[in-house]
Design brief:
The protein has 327 residues and is mainly α. The chain has 14 helices and two strands; from the N terminus they run ααααααααββαααααα.
Length: 327
């Protein structure tokens, strides 16, 4: 949890029970990830600190009940002046909506003013996958850029992790949270995703072989516990893989978007390009909403149009001729 978040601040004592109840709800019922939980808490603390200055007093239950739409708009304006992005503002608004919805549901505060506030428009950012040959070269070369590439087992470990991300479309947190006993006897692996949602993902022979090669070389007991280990034997930290990926993308001349998560995007985009249907890809990725998966159709279309515009011989030559003879 961020160090600048202080629930014990005397200024917030009057609403601390409301805030604590909401936080418990986020953990136990909503099952938010640690990252999202901390972000929501930080957004709420920014809002409460804003109310201190905006209203000139410590917020209490009546304060929350009496807030008007212009109060929320003033908060968002203050955040905008602080230079936060549109995406962060949208998240702040989402946190506030969640908080007031919880209070209404519990019969603690009845205030619908937040519902009158529109979310800021956020430019849609398309996933940025690697080209198939770049993805394969990354898997081949990453072992040479591991934190300790002189140890074969570390090299094999990093290759196995990235092969798993690309071969199964996993989030890095999902891959690194796997235990040895999660490895399948058959061709499907059980993944625990966001909010503890389970899904089954096919695991290709080449992925199983990469993992087995790493396990055979690993000096630690691989009969139980974490599948991917750090050099001291504990569960591997994502930063090790991110640094290895950073080094290999520099060596291969890949863009900064070539991160471990880009391999998940590559998995989905390459499946779609090979004829995979959206519903199946949605299940494999563990997306709750199909609209999230549909972003990959935009990526695939953008890629095809780029190839078309740069490589179609007839239209390129025709365009050149038109420029020479405008008549």
């Amino acid at each position: 949890m961020s160090q600048d978040l202080n629930l014990d601040d005397v200024s917030f004592q009057k609403i601390r029970p409301l805030l604590q109840g909401w936080l418990d709800y986020l953990r136990s019922e909503k099952r938010l990830s640690v990252h999202t939980y901390d972000a929501y808490l930080q957004d709420m603390m920014h809002f409460l600190n804003f109310l201190l200055d905006h209203l000139g007093k410590s917020p209490d239950q009546k304060t929350l009940t009496d807030l008007k739409p212009q109060d929320f708009r003033s908060f968002l304006a203050a955040r905008r002046r602080a230079g936060i992005s549109g995406a962060s503002m949208a998240r702040s608004l989402s946190a506030l909506r969640n908080f007031f919805k919880y209070l209404r549901k519990q019969g603690l505060v009845q205030n619908d003013a937040i519902d009158a506030i529109q979310s800021p428009k956020i430019p849609k950012r398309l996933p940025r996958p690697l080209a198939p040959d770049a993805a394969q070269q990354t898997l081949k070369d990453v072992g040479d850029f591991s934190a300790d590439s002189t140890q074969d087992w570390v090299r094999h470990r990093d290759i196995a992790v990235l092969t798993l991300l690309y071969g199964c479309g996993l989030r890095i947190s999902e891959a690194l949270s796997l235990d040895v006993d999660a490895l399948p006897d058959g061709d499907m692996i059980r993944i625990i995703g966001k909010r503890n949602k389970e899904r089954l993902v096919p695991i290709l022979p080449i992925v199983k072989q990469a993992i087995q090669t790493y396990m055979n070389a690993c000096p630690f007991d691989m009969t139980t516990g974490a599948l991917f280990r750090g050099v001291r034997g504990g569960r591997l930290n994502a930063r090790n893989i991110q640094l290895a990926m950073q080094k290999v993308r520099t060596a291969l001349g890949l863009p900064k978007s070539a991160t471990p998560h880009a391999l998940r995007h590559s998995f989905a985009t390459h499946l779609l390009g090979a004829g995979g249907d959206l519903r199946t890809i949605q299940e494999l990725l563990g997306h709750a909403d199909l609209s999230t998966t549909q972003h990959y159709t935009d990526v695939d279309t953008a890629y095809l149009m780029d190839v078309y515009n740069n490589a179609h011989p007839d239209f390129i030559s025709e365009a050149k001729d038109t420029k020479k003879d405008p008549a």
